[in-house]
Amino acid sequence: MSFRPRLILSNCARRCWLPLVRRSTRSHSSHAKRACKLYTLPSSTFVPYTDAFSIQKSLLRQRLDWQREGKQGHDVILLLQHESVYTLGRRGHPRDVKLPLDDPEAFHKALEAGPVHVEEKLFVRSDRGGQITWHGPGQLVGYFVLDLRYHKKDLHWYLHQLEGLLIRSLADFGLEARSDEQHTGVWVQDAKVAAIGINAASWVTIHGFGLNVAPDMTSFDAIVPCGIEEHGVTSMHSLLQDRCPTIEAVKETVAGHASRRFGFDVVATQVDSVNHLAEMEEIPQKYIEMARSVLSCLLQQARVADHSLPQSTPIAEEVDRRRDHQHHHRLQGETQNVVQLLVHGHEAKRKDHDEEDVNLRRRIRCREPTVPSVFDPSLAHSPSSGQCSSSPAWVWA
Predict the structure, then answer these.
(1) d(CA 198, CA 89)
(2) Distances from the Cα of 69 to the Cαs of 100, 135, 286, 343, in angstroms?
(3) Catalytic residue among 36, 226, 297, 366
């Protein structure tokens, strides 16, 4: 008799619980393998920074549309090398530029409007986190366009994941790298070998890391990298010398660790350019045009001889146009607020008048004495009955 309840319970578990367990296991495994497309460019191809920035913005806008439409979509990783460029993040400041600037304030204002050339060096403002850094040939740049809703909605966790995959990648080549509690990035001893800067909107990330494989390290002499004066920068070639791997080998290693770190189901594709990537991703042309409308135009038209912008340049015209556009929308919003206040005030005033009318009718019906506008004593005697009325008669003018 003692075995009977156990048999009944096991039958119940077999009929009811096991299907739920299998279902939950299937759903967990489906979420564990997030689809990701990895795009790489040949080692001989160097991408302008503004082109990569535009494609990231286009991918971001596409995924925000997918969120509104309820589409799951996929993530994107882009591994490439840039043309030589200095980028200033959200906390970047002209004081971190070691080049002689005649007017740092004018340089800062010009940088807000578009790319700036100083002594044949290109400076670009970026919306990533961090301060100033350099990108160029010999540095592997990884851009991650991920929807963190399918991973973990935590930007600190995401930063640690990027640091972790770079540390593991460097360990495969015999380098003992580490992260730092005070400064973001990956370090070997006291020198930074990889910089990290990100941005996100609705949990969709853009930007990523820059890993110094074998760049021209003299390019960092023009700036204070990441605004950290007490520490320097290094590269894999400086540390490994002849044992330094190629860019292609580092790409494969980074891609493998990214797949394991984020649980990706990666499909790798090599593209010739970012335009080819846009075709592969089927990005609407309107997204690309919107992203490039300012950046590409500013890059072509940027000409700053004395670190200031002449008022007649297309850059200044574009800045004025955008400022006027924002001012128009601000005035339009203020006008709408005033109209709403007037409408609400009119409704409140009409409500008060209605209440006064109701109270007035109530007084008339009850013939309550109140302050009159006109008092006619002749009406105090009723002509029909010849007697005085018991209460005074009020005439409302």
Answers:
(1) 9
(2) 51, 36, 18, 36
(3) 226
Residue 112: CA count within 13 A, CB half-sphere: 11
319-374 pLDDT, tens digit each: 445 545 555 555 555 545 544 554 455 555 555 556 666 565 555 555 544 444 44
CA gap 11, 3 in Å, rounded: 13
Instruction: Give dist(CA 54, CA 143) in Å, integer.
Output: 12
In angstroms, how far is CA 1 from the centroid of its own chain? 66
- Strand spans (E) along 241-368: 264-270
Distance CA 76, CA 74 (A): 7
Tell me the per-residue pLDDT of 205-243, one tens digit each, with 9 for 90 and over.
Answer: 999 999 999 999 999 999 999 888 888 899 999 999 999
Q: Which two tokens stand for residue 209?
A: 């890391």
**Nearest partner of 281 among 62, 9, 25, 15, judged by Cα:** 62
CA distance 161 to 165: 6
Q: What is the separation, in whole angstroms, between the first and last Cα of the chain?
A: 100
For residue 89, the tally of other CB atoms under 10 A from its CB is 21
Would residue 388 show up in a list of annotated catalytic residues for this protein? Answer: no
* Residue in the structure block whose two tokens are 């495994």: 29
Nearest to 170 by CA among 209, 219, 205: 209
Contact 80, 52 (CB under 8 A): yes
Alpha-carbon distance of 289 to 282, in angstroms, equals: 14
DSSP letters spanning 58-71: HHHHHHHHHHHHT-
Predicted structure pTM score = 0.68
Q: Are 258 and 135 in contact (CB under 8 A)?
A: no
